[in-house]
Write a structure and sequence with these properties.
Elements lengths: L1 H4 L18 H12 L15 H20 L2 E3 L8 E5 L5 H7 L5 E20 L5 E3 L8 E18 L3
Antiparallel strand pairs: 1-2, 2-5, 3-4, 3-5
Length: 162
């Protein structure tokens, strides 16, 4: 191990698991490293938001996203952003559910969204076997239904994540 990482090489580095008992320089260097945990120099210094707090905020956002999606809405703001912006179809009960959950929801305008299955076309068979669109008042039996994605109007709302 000292051939690869030993102190014979200037600036050599040896991980603690590769130190040998005969190499006192490396042993002392890494024993000091292992015994000194990182502590801030001053207790009043600025410590940024910890990983646990960030994870907690992201987990709350993920839970909110699942909750909103289950009620037919979409969160369109960035994860963890404040205020949270949601979109839903006009007449959706999402706004009422958010209000009941304790959020102060306010309108934030309108938008458009492409939604699968928004356009529904119904066809009947013509006398020559070809498909033709079903007309209002027709007595022919419907032969095929085709659904396509379509652009629809959505309502936007925002609220603060507390």
């Amino acid at each position: 191990a000292t051939a690869l990482f030993g102190s014979a090489r200037p600036g050599g580095f040896a991980p603690p698991s590769y130190t040998t008992s005969g190499d006192t320089t490396l042993s002392t260097r890494f024993s000091t490293y292992r015994q000194s945990p990182m502590k801030p120099k001053d207790e009043t210094c600025y410590i940024p938001m910890g990983v646990a707090e960030k994870k907690s905020r992201l987990e709350r956002f993920a839970d909110l996203n699942r909750w909103v999606t289950a009620r037919g809405g979409w969160i369109v703001s960035l994860p963890g952003a404040d205020p949270v912006i949601v979109e839903c179809l006009p007449g959706s009960f999402l706004v009422d559910a958010l209000t009941e959950a304790g959020h102060e929801v306010s309108p934030a305008g309108e938008g458009e969204r492409i939604i699968p299955g928004q356009i529904v076309q119904r066809f009947v068979r013509a006398s020559d076997g070809a498909f033709e669109p079903l007309t209002l008042g027709s007595t022919k039996t419907m032969a095929m239904t085709v659904t396509n994605a379509g652009v629809t109007r959505v309502m936007r709302y925002n609220f603060n994540l507390v």
